[in-house]
Design brief:
Number of helices: 6
CATH topology of the largest domain: Alpha-Beta Plaits
Distance between the termini: 88 Å
CATH architecture of the largest domain: 2-Layer Sandwich
Largest sheet: 5 strands, antiparallel
Length: 159
């Protein structure tokens, strides 16, 4: 049994994590072995995502009034993954979930100040990173210019 002061400190830590993050993902990690959780934590940390395991009752207390809507049902053992980048936390949890099948599941989260379900968080998770999107944009902008240069080159060869 935890002391009341320790519970209050845990709630304050969770509230601080919720306040400082752009997005937050609720993760059910039932059946996750310690070795796999260590890999998960390392992978998340390398990509700027924080991860905390908490009791559901303390998490619910910390979440009260922090976002619009209803808190999704937190089934199983629950942890939160959060970061300052809005899409990083769901994306990195999803990437780990793809590699390690049936070990994790995204059960919901907070995005843009609203509680959302797991399906919505999965959609957000599939958005590529900013670097990937910028490289795709650069390629799309380069392609027409390259074609135009080739066309001019062919015209100059004919004259």
């Amino acid at each position: 049994m935890l002391q009341k002061s320790k519970k209050e400190k845990m709630i304050k830590d969770l509230e601080g994590a919720i306040k400082d993050s752009e997005s937050l993902v609720f993760v059910n990690f039932h059946g996750l072995k310690v070795s796999n959780e260590t890999k998960l934590r390392r992978s998340l940390r390398e990509n700027g995502v924080n991860y905390k395991v908490s009791r559901k009752t303390l998490l619910k207390r910390a979440l009260e009034g922090k976002a619009e809507g209803e808190i999704p049902e937190l089934a199983g053992e629950v942890a939160i993954a959060y970061s300052k980048d809005a899409t990083a936390s769901p994306r990195e949890v999803y990437n780990f979930q793809k590699v390690n099948k049936d070990l994790l599941s995204i059960i919901g989260g907070i995005f843009n100040g609203k509680f959302v379900d797991g399906a919505y968080m999965m959609e957000i998770a599939m958005i590529p990173s900013k670097e990937v999107l910028l490289s795709k944009l650069a390629f799309l902008m380069k392609s027409p210019m390259q074609r135009f240069a080739l066309a001019i080159n062919e015209v100059s060869k004919k004259k």
